[in-house]
Amino acid sequence: MTLTAYIEGIGLLGPGLTDWPSSRAALSGQQAYQSHKTVLPPPVLLPAAERRRSGTIVKLTLATGLEAIAAAGLNAADLPSVFSSSGGDGENCHAICEMLASDDRLISPTRFHNSVHNTASGYWCIATGAMTTASVLCAFDASFAAGLLEALTQVVVDNTRSVLLACDTAYPEPLHSARPIPDAFGIALVLAPQRSARSLAQITVDLSDASADRLDDAALEGLRKAIPAARGLPLLCSIARRQNRQVVLDYLDSSTLAVAIALC
Amino acid sequence: MNPLWLSHSTATSSIGCGLDQTLTALRVRRPGLVPCAFDTVDLATHIGEVAGVDAVQLPAHLADYDCRNNRLALLGLMQDGFSEAVRAAIGKYGAQRIGLFLGTSTSGILQTELAYRRRDPVIGALPADFIYGTTHNTFSVADFTRHYFGLTGPAVVVSSACSSSAKVFASARRMMAAGLIDAAVVGGVDSLCLTTLYGFNSLGLVSEQACRPFDTQRNGISIGEAAAFVLLEHTPEHLDADAVLLLGIGESSDAYHMSSPHPEGLGARMAMLDALKMAGLQASDIDYINLHGTATQSNDAVEGKAVHSVFGSSTPCSSTKGATGHTLGAAGGVEAVICALILQHGLLPAGLNTRQLDATLDIDYILVNREQQVARVLSNSFGFGGTNCSLVFGRTGKP
User: How far apart are CA A132 and CA B255, in angstroms?
Assistant: First the structure.
């Protein structure tokens, strides 16, 4: 059973990747990929109080999601959303665990707000005014593909556009050693049920048992393996190369996702 | 939507392990809330702790998943022949054709909280026996469950705070309708930890008493833990009259505030109306509402307003959180299973601990159990971050 949708907008932010348009040359192999620490833009769309309280995952989600939706020429308030993250806000989680292990366990309300896995979706809805459904998911290393499947089922079953926001942030030490995600990374995709003037590519997705694609560039492949949200990079690399082909994305230990790409 | 059949279900919470104990506790109005003596917690509050979680042993080959949340998951899976039902479904559909959708808010984070007490005094490292991915990580409970059964289909955790295990029904419905799977194991597992106890305390939302939903004097939640599971299948042609079906789902977001609900309950209202619409029902078709009813001042006030705006003041409703406590990411699942019990046994459970109903909230909040056949019920689950989900369940044979 395959699921088909049209990509109308792409958002991208990560180490050495500032946004989708400026990253295409590196992702298509026309330019060398050079990694540097992820630069997060301030979340200007949020009211001042929420802006002050927002952590890395919120800034990352807003930046990538708004980029994809602007590219698609849509209004974020209208779109159902899927937030998929392998772990939420790493810095905040560390700060809470440190306090709870100390003599003073009185964590702050903001710390607690930001500890829930749906922090980014909550801030997203406040920033964009979206009162639509938001699915907030985690599938550890499989989080990108799990989010893509959820967004595709929204598109196909409910016949609606949907925005996928797959984002991961790093834990500081000592959790970093147990979960060594190197930096913040996010991919956002606007998916639509029908082809439109904005369509970039049609994707047809099915569960597979083929091995996941690796990337030719060693540094990009390192990124793909190190950050769950970056497991979606083979899809973006193929679109950047303007190639009609099938890519296979990592999913669970029992299956992968085969994604057939037909450029529009 | 095409109704989905809840072919098997089970719930384990502080009021009991499995359906029989849960139903009996509701019948005799036995609450599960006791003064908090969990771990080293020094808060004056009541909690709904599940007895016997510490004694649960995971199978040896899944030892890496050992944490309170997965022990509670296993305890839940052992009740009511649920594990046998999943294995039978694997035989019928194939392990790759069954999806797994579980809700949790904090998963096994207690494991990390405890590990932070044992950091290396010199370099600060976590102890060598700490395993992040199979315990702390939000996906851990689904990964444990899929390996426990050998499920190889799509699997995911929904973690949208207190709506998590209501929203799993929505994700499962879409994936079944898309034809990727033939059946789904859905549910929720959330266990006691310091993050939620001290976190809700920091917001001034934890009651010192056993929580009193919709009471004039309500002053906060009592945190509980629970595991609830449902096996969802397409509705077969012939079903017993007391079979329970999922008829409609409504999902919305408040887009208002991280920890306060929309003051007019707009998001809650949208979720309830959308659930009715998907079920093809009118508000007057609903015989009972299982409220989110957390017992904070603002949550109950807003939910009361929203329910009144959709249903008026004559639909019987109650919150079962006075019995179970607020089981957070497991609440939607537990209350879905309670709704199935209500439909099958004709018991409308009274809200517990509520002495003086808040007269400003014009709804029929029931304080005495009612024995009465009901055909369709609605369950509300609303969460932090302004996430809302309403579910409509019905009985095949209407009275």
Answer: 9
